[in-house]
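User: Sequence in, structure out. Go.
Assistant: Echoing your sequence, followed by the structure tokens.
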Amino acid sequence: MNSTKTEENGVKPEQNRFLRFFTIFKLIKFSHTIFSFPFAVMSAFIAAGGMPEIRQLLLIIGALVMARSCAMSFNRLVDAKYDIHNPRTAYRIQLQDIIGKTNLWFFTISCSILFIVCAGMLNRLSLIISPFALMVIFGYSYTKRFTNFSHIVLGLSLSLSPIGAWIGVTGRIDAAPFILAFAVLLWTAGFDIIYACQDLQHDIKSKLHSIPKMMGIKNSLILSSVLHFFVVITLFVFMYFTNLKYVYFGGVVFVGIMLIYEHTLIKPHDLSKINLAFFTVNGIISMILMVATIVDISIFC
């Protein structure tokens, strides 16, 4: 949508700029930052043994937001030829038309640069590994073209948040954040498999790959539940690599209950509650676990 068309429709150029700005956040589903944000914050608190420096925490959050934003906008750009044929995602093309492809590329590159800047302002090690993080999160967008395990790569992308936050605080690599990252990987892969079930017919027509396409919806839901079972186990194991105690334990029990609830919502013959299972339940899981972790650290450290 160019400025001439905008003025013809009675929209001022200033309003057009605001429209593009807010449309970007809708396009990249900014609200879904809730999936990775809590794990970065809780990792930062554990690494610091309490409240991190405000400067560190703000830079970690900034790096996370920039990384996710550039990854999602990049995904929308390179997947446009598939999104337009998928009834669930066709609206993304309309949003891209409002924003403009050039503007979206500018947004993607700007967020990438800001991510590296935030990482560099944390410490040298964060700066060194930041390009590798970008390689992973950008690479995810191509995985459905050649592998059924794109869900694992998405999980790997989100799992970088607790590792990056830990390094951002300590400036070193330790075992603990990798245990938490493994839990995030399993959790993300599990709920992404559920979410991908609704795209099964589109994936078949477009010759894209996914676990639901490979295994069928029923078996995919079983695999998702198995992955989520090991999420809870991994979160309990994480206690032995940290000083976390009873409040965190209670948080993990809550996570287990919510994951069971999530899987009761979805049936092979009824996917109507996928959005509730995907966004609401998983958003609650990540936030409650973060709060339980911070409270635990505040009480016992």
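User: And one key feature?
Assistant: The first helix runs from residue 3 to 8.
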